[in-house]
Design goal:
This protein has twelve helices and 13 strands. By secondary structure, it is of the alpha/beta class. It has one domain: P-loop containing nucleotide triphosphate hydrolases (Rossmann fold). It has an eight-stranded mixed beta sheet with strand order 7-8-9-3-10-11-13-12, with helices on both faces. A three-stranded antiparallel beta sheet has the order 2-1-4, covered by helices on one side. It has a two-stranded antiparallel sheet with strand order 5-6. The two termini are about 30 Å apart.
Length: about 325
Amino acid sequence: MEGLSVRLSAHPDRSSILDDVGFTVGPGEVLGIVGESGSGKSVLALSIMGLLPPALRMSARRITLLGNDLADQPREAWRAHRGRDMAMIFQEPMTSLNPVMRVGTQIEEVLRWRGRMTGSAARRRALELLEQVEMSSPRSRLHAYPHELSGGMRQRVMIAIALAAEPKLLIADEPTTALDVTVQAQILDLLRGLQRQTGLSLILITHDLGVIAEITDRVMVLYGGRVAELAPVRVIFDSPSHPYTEALLGSIPDVTGSRHRLTTIGGSVPEAMNMPPGCRFAPRCPHRQEACELMPPAIRSLAADHSVGCIRPFGYVQTETAA
């Protein structure tokens, strides 16, 4: 994806939900996308899937999936890829599943449209998918309605539906937000295991840095609709180069040291209609300079696999001097 921007259709010149976002996801790779609420994470996921509502307008230089550029294609072109080549696990399964259809019927619907299966073959495959996502008593769950299942079970059904047509890319938008800690761990282990087993690419969207550290290969830090930092997960945690990344890491509670007040980031993420003209993090940044408020910083490459959107990223001066 290159140069992705999303604006309000009614105010395209005054609004900016996403601005010049770009990244790649390789085969079998797990990319984590992290940021506060309002950073544009879910809008980014819907943009990738071609599911933005009419109130939002998307533009991009290039959106390539398996060699096909979808940037200027009509909705029909996106529809041909959804489910078959890319699929999404939504944040809240209770509002994503059809409440008046049995679980088995909802899985079979995907198989009929994408897997070209019907009748008993679709029913057998639906049962296999529930077994694959480690659903308890899978045969009886085929006949259950979503409200008869727990939150963790409903999320397993969502994962089964997403995997039904064997997509190459799976997007998980905060898939554990509504679950308790124990079930969260089970769902994350399941996603990682399925990703390794099938070799699919996974984009995991979350605000939980613990989740990011556990299962991702690379991390994109998003703030105010812009890319703040993009790097391998170990680099993000060991040597963050953007002040926002450093602030996120600093706000993680430390249970091993002495007791102290939690570190917070003052202020809040700016609204789409009220973005600052320069760096979007500048009003909250303790390291801001006058130049930060004048124009947006360009994405700077610190290494082959590490880029950051800051005029003076941590470590950049030392790297430049050493070179």
